[in-house]
Amino acid sequence: MAMETVPARRGRAVRLMAGQAIRIVNTHGTQVVDTWAFNAADPGEFLSMPHLHAALGSVFPARGDALVTNRRRPILMLEEDTSPGRHDTVIAACDVHRYQSLGCAGYHDNCTDNLQAALAMIGFPATLCPPPLNLWMNIPIAADGRITWGEPLSRPGDHVVLRAVMDCVVAMSACPQDMIPINGRDCTPVEVQYEVIA
Amino acid sequence: MAMETVPARRGRAVRLMAGQAIRIVNTHGTQVVDTWAFNAADPGEFLSMPHLHAALGSVFPARGDALVTNRRRPILMLEEDTSPGRHDTVIAACDVHRYQSLGCAGYHDNCTDNLQAALAMIGFPATLCPPPLNLWMNIPIAADGRITWGEPLSRPGDHVVLRAVMDCVVAMSACPQDMIPINGRDCTPVEVQYEVIA
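The joint structure predicted for all components is written out below.
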């Protein structure tokens, strides 16, 4: 499979067989990618951040970590990560309500809707929006619990490789957040690329 | 309504009308209470920790905070909190898989099943187990993301008051974790009490 694009502000989903992997490339270095995974045989089993925290003893997954589902089974391995490794696991996917609260009057593209559109494109029936793995989203957490909405620390071309432990669907959304600088100080969402590899 | 008991290792659920509140008392001071809330008119809308983090800019809710749903609407107000205020919002409810991974061979009581049993007792049809608000669960998060499974900082009789902003169902589980000291160094789950107040 050749390199494919997740267009700016949009979502894509792919099916992986166990043993296959997806390489996700932060083409411009500034783009957050909300990422989900579902058991291909059961959309009720999915990559789950609150379960991941217990499994890892950490809110920041690192290279070599098994990423687990809501049934505490590995679904993906974080096999490679060329970036500084700062990915968020505590913030919900953005949605129309989020942009309304930030002052957007009309519709705004959002990761929650992008997930549904991406899954519909490949005919996968999940309707939930589980808390995502927010690749490259930089959310420091202070000892008193306060979070900071930081800019990504990643560089152009940084990538992660996620290897499927079970047959699964991986969905990605190139986050359309352009009202706060979570996708870099220019507040300009851009595309990212991905490829399925053996 | 008089004081009621959530027995050790069990769950309970109550319906609150908007404006009513529930007072939850940590009778012995050492007990974690996994807590959920659902819109009474729609089990698809529920108190959601990942959305709460974005709303609060913090992983630790504090007195006076509005606790929001997956549609970013306030469902409960954290109106009172006599404890040191350390409640966890990043760890999933325990489940059979969690106890298996800790070495339990047979069935172990768990908060995920307690939620379903509690909701069934009042005839509420939710089947999801959203990430809970883990009252009094003490999970410090270090700057590098590492979490610690601490003992509760609460004292006997500490309580919180959660006031309903919308008609809702509040469910609680007196966490049956007895394999690590999350419910105090004695690893002895105990009962807690609650009352619905005007």
